[in-house]
Design brief:
By secondary structure, the protein is an all-alpha fold. It contains 10 helices and no strands. Helix 3 runs antiparallel to helix 9 and helix 7 packs antiparallel against helix 8. GO terms for molecular function: peroxidase activity.
Length: 184
């Protein structure tokens, strides 16, 4: 059962109602994570702004989804695993094998693999990467801007993972099981 309340869009007021209306017009629905974030319009606005800005970045939609999948797997966020598995397959048209690989922080594309590995290093080291960590990702062909965006995506996904794990947000996407359950 959810620990934090998801706001019914029909009952929203003020800034939350305004944000929900914009989300509804763009997505056709207000997902439970956003409904739950709606109790803090500042949090919801901050999430939406960073998500929107990064969606127009250098890394592209596929790498954004690969990062979201890998980070959700690392942080055991069932909500984000489910949401991004669905989005990856249905909206970004990523094949199942690539989705599973991303959840393992792997890719057959060398540059994408470096992106995922660097994101995991960032998480494991709490952002305290060293010169070698950055040189490895640069050697794989990432620009300074792309490296910066990886950091941004890690921050965005940690935000949503931690939020959903705290809220125990009700999953409103087809449920994706953690890899340890699938592979056991």
């Amino acid at each position: 059962m959810a620990r934090l309340k998801a706001i019914n869009p029909d009952e929203a007021t003020g800034k939350t109602k305004e944000l929900f209306s914009a989300i509804q017009s763009k997505l056709g629905v207000v997902p439970n994570m956003m409904r739950t974030m709606g109790s803090s319009p500042a949090l919801l606005q901050g999430y939406l702004d960073l998500n929107n800005t990064l969606s127009h970045g250098l890394l592209g939609a596929k790498n954004s989804e690969f990062l979201a999948l890998s980070i959700a797997e690392t942080n055991a966020c069932d909500y984000c695993l489910s949401a991004h598995s669905y989005i990856s397959e249905k909206l970004v048209h990523i094949d199942t094998n690539s989705i599973v690989n991303a959840r393992h922080a792997n890719s057959t594309d060398a540059k994408t693999d470096a992106v995922l590995k660097f994101a995991n290093v960032l998480i494991a080291k709490n952002g305290l990467v060293n010169d070698n960590d950055v040189e490895v990702v640069k050697a794989a062909g990432l620009s300074d801007g792309e490296i910066g965006e990886v950091v941004g995506h890690v921050a965005l996904n940690i935000l949503t993972n931690y939020f959903n794990n705290t809220a125990d947000t009700e999953i409103d996407f087809p449920v994706a099981k953690p890899l340890q359950e699938i592979e056991a």
